[in-house]
Amino acid sequence: MIVQSFCLAAMEYGLGTCIMGLTILWPEIIRDIVATPKGKYIATTIAVGYPEFDAPINNFERPREALENLVEWHLD
Questions:
Q1: Element at 12 (helix H, strand E)
Q2: Alpha carbon separation from 72 to 64, 67, 76 (Å, rounded)
Q3: Sequential DSSP letters for 57-69
Q4: Which helix H or strand E contains 46, and what residues bound it?
Q5: Which tens digit of pLDDT belongs to each residue from 4-49?
Q6: Which residues of 25-47 are buried (b: 16+ CB within 10 A; e: fewer)?
Q7: pLDDT tens per residue, range 38-55
Q8: Other C-beta atoms lying within 10 Å of the C-beta of residue 16
Q9: Closest among 10, 2, 5, 1 to 47, alpha carbons compared
Q10: Which of 56, 57, 53, 44 is CA-nearest to residue 18?
Q11: Contact at 8 Å (CB) between 36 and 30?
Q12: Is residue 51 within 8 Å of 17, Cβ to Cβ?
């Protein structure tokens, strides 16, 4: 909930965020960058910055599986 709240608060200031849980696989790199003591665990990291909506990487076509191929509805 803290990470979600942080990301929502950043959005209020016009900032974009990207939650990057995979970075915990290399904690020594993160510790060097942000001076985290060895006794502390790194649970996740969050990239923060100003979004550039017109950048090509943010506008490429992404193929997606159709919803009906992924979801089965059970309505009673």
A1: helix 2-12
A2: 17, 9, 13
A3: GGS-------HHH
A4: strand 46-49
A5: 999 999 999 999 999 998 888 888 888 888 888 888 888 889 999 9
A6: eeeeeeeeeeeeeeeeebeebee
A7: 888 888 899 999 999 899
A8: 15
A9: 10
A10: 44
A11: yes
A12: no
State the amino acid at position 23 in one-letter form: T
Residue 22 is encoded by which pair of tokens?
């995979």
Reading the block at residue 42, the tokens are 């790194």
41 token code pair: 């665990």
Which residue type is seen at 57?
A: I
In 3D space, the residue among 44, 46, 43, 37 whose CA is nearest the CA of residue 18 turns out to be: 46
